[in-house]
Amino acid sequence: GNLPKFGVEVEDEDAMSLMVSQINTWNFDLFKFAVISKDHPLVSMAYVILQSERNLLRSYNVDPPTFIKYMFVIEANYHKTNPYHNATHGADVMQSCHVLLGYSVVEQVFTDLEVFAALFASAIHDVDHPGLSNQFLSNTSNELAILYNDHAVLENHHLATAFKFLQEDELNWASGMDDKQRQLFRKMVIDLVLATDMSKHLSLLADIKTTVESSKVAHNGKLVLESYNERMLVLQGIVHSCDISSATKALPIYKAWTERIIEEFYQQGDRERDLGLNLSPMCDRQNPSIEKSQVGFIDFIVLPLWETLGELMFPYCQEMLSQLNENRMYYFSRIPESPRCSIT
Ligand SMILES: O[C@@H](CN1CCOCC1)Cn1nccc1-c1ccc(OC(F)F)c(OC2CCCC2)c1
Ligand SMILES: [Zn+2]
Hints:
The protein is mostly helical. It contains 17 helices and no strands.
């Protein structure tokens, strides 16, 4: 067909080919990729991974031009004006997921359909994100919070948005799948994106620990997942870990993501201030606490999750854990001295 090699037209095919040759590396530079793909990081990432690298489109009779048209619409519905929750984040989570699912310890465990569902879920998991938190949407009685009754508001919206476009004939790339496959694919994508809701983090982590423990004991160290729930739990853990993987990346990349999320939080704080609401944690640009917040985020959320993933994927993920510890030290060593309380 006449589809461009990388799904989108690029200026510099050699630079693009060089980047694509690094697509299986953990420290892949998504910011550079966004530039080289002429601001189509998600369309090109999805096409390269699903078509060129994994040949999954052919496996499920997906028409490539229709799939590309659909991904252009998804990419256009990520807000370019969001400092963090934009199409580059979607492409980042998808590429990170592609790396983890390529490790032999999990590669044999999951079916092609499960891999396809995890990669697609990663690509669409934050589509039409408003750059505001679930808490903010509920506090301001946003129409989405009313629609989803304050439960996983953003995550439900990302899913509904992605699947609504799939209803349009000229975007329906799944028409070539048989009904049973399409039904299971949809169920898995829903379960995976709903698991990126941070309020589910602790219960997801606890369930993954239990599953990894029982599986490794029952099968002397080999990861064997029997039920749909066990398989989904591990896939949910992989997608959720990729969604909050920034602190496990090389420091320059991590710092770039941190600057972006902080600016997005500050913009929410600006709106809360204008509305006379209490400012959400870490959203007050007049009282910055970046270093301390990152160390807390790593200690209480990111490290426990990635240590569990490191057990599950052993001996893989050690690179992520060592980068995570280095990155923690970077911010820990920069926590400003607390102003001495003047006892005068
Ligand atoms: O907001 C986070 C969850 N909160 C829950 C309440 O306690 C603090 C953490 C997760 N989350 N959700 C959406 C985006 C992100 C999120 C993703 C990458 C983040 O940092 C860096 F790695 F880029 C990140 O950092 C914030 C600011 C400092 C610490 C947390 C946040
Ligand atoms: Zn996300």
